[in-house]
Amino acid sequence: MNCRLPALFVFLVGIMVASASDAAGIDDFAPSDWAKLNGYAKNTWRSFEALTLPSGLPADSLTRTKDGTYQASNLTSPSDIAAYLWSTIAAEDLKIIGADEAAQRMGQTLTTLVKLERSHGFFFNWYDPRDGSPLKVWPGGGPVRPFLSSVDNGWLAVSLMIVRNVRPKFREVADGLLAPMNFGFFYDPYDPKNPLEHPGLLRGGFYSDNNTYTGYHYGMLNTEARIASYVAIARNQVPADHYYRMSRSRPSRSEPQSITCRGQVRKYLEVTVDEGYNSYRGLRIVPSWDGSMFEAMMVSLFIPEAEWGPDSWGINHKLYVRASIENALEDSHLAAWGASPSSIPTGGYRVYGVTPLSVDGRDIEAAKESVMTPHASFLAMQFAPREALKNAEILAEQFHSYGPHGFADAVDVKTGRVSDTELSLDQGMIMAAVANVLSNGTLQKAFCDEKVTEALRPLIAREQFSSGIEPIAEMTASASAPVVTRPTQPRIDAPSWDRSGSVPYVPQAWSVKSSRPVLKTRRLSGFKFAKLR
Length: 533
Fold this sequence. Notes:
A hairpin with a 5-residue loop joins strand 1 and strand 2. Helices cover 37% and strands 11% of the residues. Helix 2 runs antiparallel to helix 14.
């Protein structure tokens, strides 16, 4: 594939951006659309009411049993707690709950957080939400190693920064919780003499039982792990040039059929950056690790990357969403889209993504499946609002995936099977996205105070990705998938699904990067990553 960037490319990017800005957006929603989103938020909040224990800690998941009742899991993570805190603020802003209830809920959670056992200033990755004790045994058996995750603590730091910014009553306790969380602890300083071993990146985490770091770093920019980098830079705990040391793509193959291309090589803060990209359906897109919506879009719930980086995220986020939609509807001829890590409808958890949006466009086994998750629609809503709302409606009404607790976590859009599980983090993404739409970016404004803005905006603003529309000459020379209409799918009845089909536990190699926990039959396995060099 010809991966040059001719001058015509810049002209076509301008056309693309102008066209995107003229498209129907959130401001064009009808009153019925606003009402529907508000209803989604109200029911989603009910899931948090069911998930949250008297300790103020939310369970990681809520599962519908065969008799129709719901059972909360006996574990929680820093990301789950973060999702509950920002969802409580969102629920108050949307007037789903009153100020007194919101204060009581946040106060209880913060009080419990103060009491939780920590190490090196950070929270362990799993606690028992009933009493706040560190989890020692996985559900089903097996010891839990005490692990400090940089990205999960990053999400908790985000929620605490939001709380201290917008709820002065809790500022002192939030600041007290944040103070020991120095993300420089995870930072591996750049060594020009040995950049492979010391790349200037954040490590994945730390095992406190033997005082060892993980043997991998977070190397890709377009993943959810960049939230920890943003927090660390904003709090002046790592150097700003760390942002440019993360890979935009990983063009490690030279075969003509590779979809990964090297882009312009540019320098920012004396760091040389290869602005590489994947080429797919006439689009040039900075990929994520697994090609999922969660990796690429969750961070933008709290940081207006597209606004701050019009030549980078402002282009890439729109095209990433567009490519994810086209991959499902046009390439795979499915009735809905939304590939992102989620529950498996038959039981368990899996990292779902889109192969052409993944590093190297490598073959992702889960991408061959037809499991879609509703939270992906909401993550995409600020970049493709009409398409996102329509997709959520299809998942809710056509596939019966919506109920008193909001959306079920996942749907197989070929078989119609709906997951019986709701996950705190995924529900939290929906709450954050709807609050941003209905309250004009409320959580972005809550997180991005003056200090955060001054630290991050210039870094994001100065970069120019290679994202955009392929030049005409290359588009006509390469084959692209045919454009087809969305297939008509009959409404699917909602029988009582057999909940067998679980996945046996197998020890996992450190081979696939994802910061999402993988639910197995016997235990939640550790995080799985690959070291990028």
